[in-house]
Amino acid sequence: xxxxxxxxxxxxxxxxxxxxxxxxxxxxxxxxxxxxxxxxxxxxxxxxxxxxxxxxxxxxxxxxxxxxxxxxxxxxxxxxxxxxxxxxxxxxxxxxxxxxxxxxxxxxxxxxxxxxxxxxxxxxxxxxxxxxxxxxxxxxxxxxxxxxxxxxxxxxxxxxxxxxxxxxxxxxxxxxxxxxxxxxxxxxxxxxx
Length: 193
Known about the structure:
alpha/beta
Protein backbone atom coordinates (compact mmCIF):
# COMPACT_ATOMS: atom_id res chain seq x y z
CA UNK A 1 0.00 0.00 0.00
CA UNK A 2 1.31 3.43 -0.92
CA UNK A 3 1.49 6.17 1.67
CA UNK A 4 -1.35 8.58 0.83
CA UNK A 5 -1.01 10.64 4.03
CA UNK A 6 2.25 12.57 3.55
CA UNK A 7 5.37 12.82 1.43
CA UNK A 8 9.00 13.64 2.02
CA UNK A 9 9.82 16.99 0.42
CA UNK A 10 13.06 18.17 -1.15
CA UNK A 11 13.58 20.42 1.92
CA UNK A 12 16.33 18.57 3.78
CA UNK A 13 18.59 19.21 6.74
CA UNK A 14 21.69 17.13 7.33
CA UNK A 15 22.65 17.18 10.97
CA UNK A 16 25.47 15.06 12.34
CA UNK A 17 25.23 12.65 9.42
CA UNK A 18 21.44 12.21 9.58
CA UNK A 19 19.40 13.48 6.63
CA UNK A 20 16.06 14.91 7.72
CA UNK A 21 13.27 15.46 5.18
CA UNK A 22 10.53 17.97 5.81
CA UNK A 23 7.12 16.37 5.40
CA UNK A 24 4.07 17.61 3.52
CA UNK A 25 0.47 16.46 4.01
CA UNK A 26 -1.10 14.86 0.93
CA UNK A 27 -4.60 15.00 2.42
CA UNK A 28 -6.44 16.66 5.31
CA UNK A 29 -6.69 14.74 8.60
CA UNK A 30 -7.17 15.84 12.20
CA UNK A 31 -6.09 19.50 12.31
CA UNK A 32 -3.69 19.09 9.37
CA UNK A 33 -4.70 20.48 5.98
CA UNK A 34 -3.73 19.20 2.53
CA UNK A 35 -0.41 20.75 1.46
CA UNK A 36 0.61 21.72 5.00
CA UNK A 37 4.33 21.44 5.71
CA UNK A 38 5.30 19.58 8.83
CA UNK A 39 8.44 18.85 10.78
CA UNK A 40 11.36 16.64 9.83
CA UNK A 41 11.75 12.87 9.71
CA UNK A 42 14.52 10.57 8.56
CA UNK A 43 12.27 8.09 6.72
CA UNK A 44 8.61 7.38 6.02
CA UNK A 45 8.44 4.68 8.69
CA UNK A 46 8.94 7.36 11.36
CA UNK A 47 5.24 8.33 11.08
CA UNK A 48 2.35 5.93 10.73
CA UNK A 49 0.28 6.54 7.62
CA UNK A 50 -2.81 5.65 9.69
CA UNK A 51 -4.55 7.87 12.23
CA UNK A 52 -3.81 11.55 12.80
CA UNK A 53 -0.16 11.20 13.88
CA UNK A 54 1.91 14.22 12.80
CA UNK A 55 5.25 15.94 13.27
CA UNK A 56 5.27 19.74 13.04
CA UNK A 57 7.42 22.81 13.58
CA UNK A 58 11.13 22.07 13.85
CA UNK A 59 10.51 18.69 15.52
CA UNK A 60 12.53 15.70 14.35
CA UNK A 61 11.86 11.98 14.40
CA UNK A 62 14.62 9.59 13.37
CA UNK A 63 16.26 6.23 13.83
CA UNK A 64 13.68 3.49 14.33
CA UNK A 65 11.38 5.81 16.29
CA UNK A 66 7.74 6.01 15.29
CA UNK A 67 4.83 8.37 15.87
CA UNK A 68 1.43 6.68 15.52
CA UNK A 69 -2.24 6.86 16.41
CA UNK A 70 -3.21 10.49 17.03
CA UNK A 71 0.15 11.42 18.58
CA UNK A 72 1.75 14.80 17.91
CA UNK A 73 5.43 15.81 18.01
CA UNK A 74 6.00 19.56 17.75
CA UNK A 75 8.22 22.52 18.60
CA UNK A 76 11.88 21.53 18.77
CA UNK A 77 11.18 18.06 20.19
CA UNK A 78 13.19 15.02 19.09
CA UNK A 79 12.09 11.40 19.10
CA UNK A 80 14.83 8.90 18.28
CA UNK A 81 16.26 5.44 18.78
CA UNK A 82 13.50 2.85 19.11
CA UNK A 83 11.13 5.23 20.90
CA UNK A 84 7.37 5.05 20.31
CA UNK A 85 4.94 7.96 20.67
CA UNK A 86 1.38 6.75 20.28
CA UNK A 87 -2.26 7.12 21.27
CA UNK A 88 -3.14 10.77 21.94
CA UNK A 89 0.33 11.59 23.32
CA UNK A 90 2.00 14.96 22.76
CA UNK A 91 5.76 15.60 22.76
CA UNK A 92 6.59 19.30 22.46
CA UNK A 93 8.96 22.11 23.37
CA UNK A 94 12.57 20.95 23.62
CA UNK A 95 11.60 17.49 24.92
CA UNK A 96 13.63 14.41 24.00
CA UNK A 97 12.22 10.88 23.83
CA UNK A 98 14.81 8.22 23.00
CA UNK A 99 16.13 4.74 23.51
CA UNK A 100 13.28 2.24 23.96
CA UNK A 101 11.01 4.78 25.64
CA UNK A 102 7.27 4.69 25.03
CA UNK A 103 4.99 7.69 25.44
CA UNK A 104 1.36 6.71 25.00
CA UNK A 105 -2.25 7.26 25.99
CA UNK A 106 -2.91 10.90 26.82
CA UNK A 107 0.63 11.56 28.06
CA UNK A 108 2.23 14.96 27.48
CA UNK A 109 5.99 15.50 27.50
CA UNK A 110 7.05 19.12 27.16
CA UNK A 111 9.58 21.78 28.05
CA UNK A 112 13.10 20.42 28.43
CA UNK A 113 11.98 16.97 29.64
CA UNK A 114 13.80 13.80 28.63
CA UNK A 115 12.09 10.41 28.57
CA UNK A 116 14.19 7.29 28.38
CA UNK A 117 13.45 3.71 29.29
CA UNK A 118 15.27 2.49 32.40
CA UNK A 119 18.33 0.62 31.17
CA UNK A 120 22.05 0.41 31.65
CA UNK A 121 23.34 3.69 30.37
CA UNK A 122 26.21 6.12 30.65
CA UNK A 123 25.91 9.88 30.32
CA UNK A 124 28.79 12.17 29.34
CA UNK A 125 28.29 15.92 29.31
CA UNK A 126 28.95 18.66 28.49
CA UNK A 127 30.76 17.68 25.31
CA UNK A 128 31.32 18.90 21.76
CA UNK A 129 30.57 22.12 19.93
CA UNK A 130 27.07 22.36 21.42
CA UNK A 131 28.06 21.43 24.98
CA UNK A 132 25.63 18.54 24.58
CA UNK A 133 24.99 15.49 26.70
CA UNK A 134 26.04 12.18 25.17
CA UNK A 135 24.07 9.16 26.37
CA UNK A 136 25.20 5.59 25.77
CA UNK A 137 22.66 2.79 26.19
CA UNK A 138 24.14 -0.66 26.66
CA UNK A 139 21.84 -3.15 24.90
CA UNK A 140 23.62 -6.42 25.65
CA UNK A 141 24.02 -8.52 22.51
CA UNK A 142 22.41 -5.78 20.42
CA UNK A 143 25.38 -3.52 21.12
CA UNK A 144 25.51 0.15 22.07
CA UNK A 145 23.18 2.98 21.15
CA UNK A 146 24.62 6.53 21.13
CA UNK A 147 22.30 9.55 21.50
CA UNK A 148 23.60 13.10 21.45
CA UNK A 149 22.17 16.21 19.89
CA UNK A 150 20.37 14.95 16.82
CA UNK A 151 22.51 11.82 16.42
CA UNK A 152 21.13 8.41 17.31
CA UNK A 153 22.90 5.25 16.21
CA UNK A 154 25.61 2.68 16.77
CA UNK A 155 29.09 3.46 18.07
CA UNK A 156 30.54 2.70 14.61
CA UNK A 157 28.18 5.18 12.93
CA UNK A 158 28.87 7.76 15.64
CA UNK A 159 32.64 7.36 15.14
CA UNK A 160 32.23 7.97 11.39
CA UNK A 161 29.95 10.97 11.97
CA UNK A 162 32.47 12.52 14.40
CA UNK A 163 35.29 12.07 11.91
CA UNK A 164 33.25 13.55 9.07
CA UNK A 165 31.81 16.47 11.06
CA UNK A 166 34.67 17.39 13.41
CA UNK A 167 37.83 15.71 12.08
CA UNK A 168 40.80 16.52 14.29
CA UNK A 169 39.41 19.77 15.74
CA UNK A 170 39.24 20.19 19.51
CA UNK A 171 35.64 18.91 19.39
CA UNK A 172 36.68 15.91 17.33
CA UNK A 173 39.39 15.17 19.89
CA UNK A 174 36.87 15.44 22.76
CA UNK A 175 34.55 12.98 21.04
CA UNK A 176 37.42 10.59 20.21
CA UNK A 177 38.41 10.43 23.90
CA UNK A 178 34.75 9.76 24.78
CA UNK A 179 34.60 6.99 22.14
CA UNK A 180 37.65 5.25 23.61
CA UNK A 181 36.14 5.57 27.10
CA UNK A 182 32.85 4.07 25.88
CA UNK A 183 34.70 1.15 24.27
CA UNK A 184 36.56 0.44 27.51
CA UNK A 185 33.36 0.55 29.61
CA UNK A 186 31.62 -1.79 27.12
CA UNK A 187 34.59 -4.17 27.29
CA UNK A 188 34.47 -4.23 31.12
CA UNK A 189 30.71 -4.83 31.10
CA UNK A 190 31.10 -7.67 28.60
CA UNK A 191 33.68 -9.34 30.90
CA UNK A 192 31.25 -9.14 33.85
CA UNK A 193 28.60 -11.24 32.05
